[in-house]
Fold these 2 entries.
Entry 1:
Amino acid sequence: MSVIMQLPEGLEWAAHSCALMASLPGTPLPVRILAEFFDLPEPYLGKQLQKLSAAGIVKTRRGPSGGYMLADTPENISLLQIVEAVDGPTKTFKCTEIRARGPSAVAAGNYLRPCGIARAMWAADAAWRRALAEVSLHELVRRGMAETPPEQVERGAEWIRMKLQKTT
Amino acid sequence: MSVIMQLPEGLEWAAHSCALMASLPGTPLPVRILAEFFDLPEPYLGKQLQKLSAAGIVKTRRGPSGGYMLADTPENISLLQIVEAVDGPTKTFKCTEIRARGPSAVAAGNYLRPCGIARAMWAADAAWRRALAEVSLHELVRRGMAETPPEQVERGAEWIRMKLQKTT
């Protein structure tokens, strides 16, 4: 068996949901409509939205016309915040201190610095997070709008307007 | 259930095995001795060494005094090569093109560029790999020697000499 390091697919769903919310400011979107819009299973998408909510990225409005909205402006939300909301802040490399095992090990107090292998892995992890922190949700939406066929943007907005009218 | 993106622990084992081989140039190390040196399960460590071998990072010498050796100088082996040998070159973010799903989707041919979210995730993945590519095994060993208690270096070298003498 080979374990491959990959982010959970819920991240893609969470990021697209945030991008849609950013392009419809002030419009609460129910999980049901988001799930239908992206053709995703509602319960699992709901879990991703709860994670975004726990991280303070989205907030909910209750009531018949309630739903999820961004808790801040898209300029103030980074892709890193979305990634860490879904995947957690745990580093991609875990050091189990194998230096301190086996016949050559010395007493634990003698290891004054973290292992060089761990430090190199953590530095790369930090470079990954820095790159994610540099991209705002605003920037993602700007790029997304530029590359999405205009027909889709119109069709999507129209579909959501229609769905929200039926709800209220 | 929460899935957290993390590298397999076999990576730590593979990296430490390579560092040990680098500090004992020209000395083939059997899996059995490596496993005992790091206090690791031999069959699973053996799998990591096979992955390193398949990637051309280590080579084997057969026979009673055989074992694993580096296939190149430590200056020419990067931490990225070791990571990709163990974890594969698969990107940490998989795009399932949810743009092309649901009621707003247009025909697949209309998506001329990869999704902006995927491109941002892949750019961060590339930054991570660049950081790993910049660290050579030589550099890892240099740092490791500087931070390992001298007592451990001597004890480890002595233990391996003794083990190898018993083997031959």
Entry 2:
Amino acid sequence: MTAIILIEPQMGENIGATARSMLNFGLTDLRIVNPRDGWPNPKAVDMAKGAKEVIHNARIFSSLSEAAYDIHKIYATTARPRDMVKPVLSPEECGNAIHSNIRKGEKSAIMFGPERCGLDNDDITLAAAITIIPVSEIYPSLNIAQAVSVMSYEYFKAGLKAENDITDQKKSNAASAEDIANFFQHLEEELDNKDFFRVADKRPRMVRNIRNIFMRADLTDQDVRTLRGIIGSLVKKKFDKSV
Amino acid sequence: MTAIILIEPQMGENIGATARSMLNFGLTDLRIVNPRDGWPNPKAVDMAKGAKEVIHNARIFSSLSEAAYDIHKIYATTARPRDMVKPVLSPEECGNAIHSNIRKGEKSAIMFGPERCGLDNDDITLAAAITIIPVSEIYPSLNIAQAVSVMSYEYFKAGLKAENDITDQKKSNAASAEDIANFFQHLEEELDNKDFFRVADKRPRMVRNIRNIFMRADLTDQDVRTLRGIIGSLVKKKFDKSV
């Protein structure tokens, strides 16, 4: 469902290696805008090895807007942030964003520019976000097929993570938003009873800080029961051993 | 400091592309055990592009144990888990493990087998752990230079993360272990006062569960002060508005 778009790629070998990397990580929808050496390209077929089907099914377009006709979100892979008001994502964040789009029924594409000069600003304008692969300053020039590998790898990894998250949640019984809201209400009522917040002006910020501590703990059902038990216990009158 | 070891690589092009990927992600120490086509290899030099220095400085060995003479931990990249009692790490975990080794003053190498057959069991025996790049079942055959890219990328990313973690900790003032221990003692004393644990047998497990909830929240100094304030407030006698 997720597409790779190459803008004006120059070397057939790179297109073939791109297809191979794509299929390694489960991607099959290759779209090419104005390949320099025309199409079909025997070098691309040769370099694709076991991913020749990706090359045979690749579609050629004459502009990005045509290539992205059914795409909701385009992610532009660039070497550095451009002077544009666009969110900048790491490859990992980009992989997660694409899977979050998939859950919303939206189709994404990861876009790569020509080997020598990268994407031009007109094409980047159409992107939802920019994504930058972190590279060493010593030699930042990443081969396009290697860039496709890294992006496709993070896309595939995010898919595995999305599956695991669903399984984990089932396993661990993550607390529902309602249970958590009730826990916060319980805690904050008891704190109000004891005049914990003192200054009314500061209450909203203090409440937010306290909620954030517990939100970071990824509470389960059982955690919420435990925490509510703790509150109930702490506010009791002192335990009387003689009773 | 971290090395890449190629065992019996076949294609000079793959060695060159490996060097390029290495340098993209800040790695320069290439060691090769028995390259099939001998050494030096002009195809390797050609494919290395801007990373020719890595090829010129590569060292050739006749066995893994010679190549790893100064290495503390070898990570074996394989396509599937082998029938061996070895930890299996994701590329991300491997990157983190290497940086954790670096902090301990230990030197690591990531090892890759020949293109066609992968690493043999004798070489894997010398590894501290196996690492497996997640790939699609449709076409799991990853080119060796792409595998080096993914592993080197995760290594580089883990390095950036390690730097950020240090900065984050400075910024956020993570609570010290002592402060956290004092907070737990405070909470557990108050809970004992209120007979929260009731059954003595169950106390250790209940204490562990409660501590785990808070450990997951990555508490800062300020969080610990807030939580201790909450405990102090909850155990107070009911607030008397007339006072």
